[in-house]
Amino acid sequence: MMDNDWASVDRYLVDALIGDDGAPALAANADAGLPAIDVSPPQGKFLHLLARSAGARRVLEIGTLGGYSTEWLARAVGDEGTVVTLEFEPRHAKVARENLDRAGVGARVDIRVGAALDTLPEVAEDAAAPFDLVFIDADKVNNANYVQWALRLTRPGSVIIVDNVVRGGAVADEHSEDPNVRASRELVELLAAEPSLDATVLQTVGAKGWDGFAYAVVNGPTS
């Protein structure tokens, strides 16, 4: 199958299982000129279901963009839950706030603007309890750093998900000079070596092309 076949399957699945859920946010992001790098609708619904399956009430998201994935996660945590989401670009954060408020989940979401490595210490200081789930979808070169922060902010049983790890298959190329590919390999090596994590990486295809995500469970004392 080729990319256009993958996209056709995605369209079928969206029509059958997702419908217009989250579609206003995607349209608003496009109208605002945000980069079209949101998770796909099936991936957004998948995040939502993962969060619900984990019984997540406190979620940390690193990389908000226009709030599309944030909306899915905010729906999952329910009225009593909280999503803390970190976004580098103020303009993106503004669009996200509008999207989340329009969707009726804005009160559940705390958007923090700035470089994530600068705002994560503030999150750690403010955190009243560990996060149940962390979703990482920001600048790829810092993925290993973000996972290390996630370990500080979670508990045994928490879930950590990292998007865009496979890089169209390039993650298997040990000679790649692409910084994003090298970062993915560094991440995989960290997941393999870290005793507090049990992890895998799943490849995905669809409207977003060929990629994949890391899925890890915190299974021991966090550092």
Automatic annotation (TrEMBL):
Q: Does the keyword Nucleotidyltransferase apply?
A: no
What PROSITE patterns does the database record attribute to this sequence? Answer: SAM_OMT_I (PS51682)
Q: Which Gene3D superfamilies match?
A: Vaccinia Virus protein VP39
Keywords of this entry:
Methyltransferase, S-adenosyl-L-methionine, Transferase
One protein family per Pfam = Methyltransf_3
**What is the recorded name of this protein?**
O-methyltransferase
The record, for InterPro entries, names: Cation-dep_OMT, SAM-dependent_MTases_sf, SAM_O-MeTrfase
Q: Which organism is it from?
A: Nocardia rhizosphaerihabitans
